[in-house]
Write a structure and sequence with these properties.
Elements lengths: L4 H21 L3 H12 L6 E4 L5 H6 L5 E6 L2 H14 L4 E6 L12 E7 L8 H11 E12 L1 H13 L11 H10 L2 E7 L3 E8 L28
Length: 231
């Protein structure tokens, strides 16, 4: 896909305008993405991103890793992401694919790392998506699932109502995801900041020799309050 400098600039301007609107409602995109990225890195090996969206997290990630395969079901969203990546002129490279997260087109254990940011609540079959994530992740790999927390969802709801729209949100609970990972032998921790929650999972026995891989504990003082959006 050929991208002109003007297209990339216009797309960037639209994203910045949207970020300003978010900030007025109390969501600082830059601050929250930095928090998610700080809890995500390092990401080893071959990386899969589920839910490209407009490429906000992808562009942040490509400043730190050489290559990312990213999927979305919406070509229009991925075009926006392509323009975003082109504007930023990042050192890393992205491979864009249209694919359904509930039926990933790769064999088992294809990726060292799987990450998804602010996309899970849009997916209609979350249990199947998580099953696919577990299937394609390598046993010694790393999985990061980030989404809005209670405050973040409340802000998105208010903003969308103000615009006369409804913020799409499929109900689920991080607690259930953590139990699912544990049932498959993964150790998962949950961290939360201002508007974001981040689940980090590694295989409980990763590292070989029967030694458990160390995982940082959940941050105290940043618990997540479950509301109707997570039930």
């Amino acid at each position: 896909m050929r991208i002109s400098r003007q297209e990339a600039f216009d797309n960037h301007s639209r994203l910045m305008e949207r970020d300003l609107i978010w900030r007025r409602f109390g969501y600082d995109a830059d601050r929250n993405l930095k928090f998610v990225l700080s809890r995500t890195l390092p990401l080893p090996g071959r990386i899969l991103e589920i839910g490209t969206g407009k490429g906000r997290f992808l562009t942040a990630l490509l400043s730190h890793v050489p290559r990312v395969t990213t999927i979305d079901i919406d070509p229009a969203e991925q075009r926006c992401a392509r323009l975003n990546v082109a504007f930023e002129k990042l050192p890393g490279r992205a491979r864009f694919m249209i694919a359904d997260a509930a039926s990933l087109p790769w064999p088992e254990h294809s990726f060292d790392s799987v990450v998804s940011v602010n996309a899970l609540h849009h997916m209609k079959n979350i249990p199947q998506v998580v099953g696919e994530v577990l299937r394609v992740a390598k046993p010694a790999g790393k999985i990061v699932l980030a989404d809005f927390n209670t405050r973040g969802f409340a802000i998105m709801d208010r903003m969308h109502r103000k615009e006369g729209r409804v913020h799409e949100c499929i109900p689920y609970r991080f607690k259930d995801l953590m139990e699912r990972f544990a049932a498959h032998g993964w150790t998962a921790v949950l961290r939360s900041d201002d508007c974001q929650a981040v689940l980090i999972a590694v295989k409980a026995s990763a590292g070989g020799g029967g030694k458990k891989r160390k995982v940082a504990p959940v941050l105290k003082g940043h618990s997540i309050r479950w509301n109707r959006l997570h039930r």
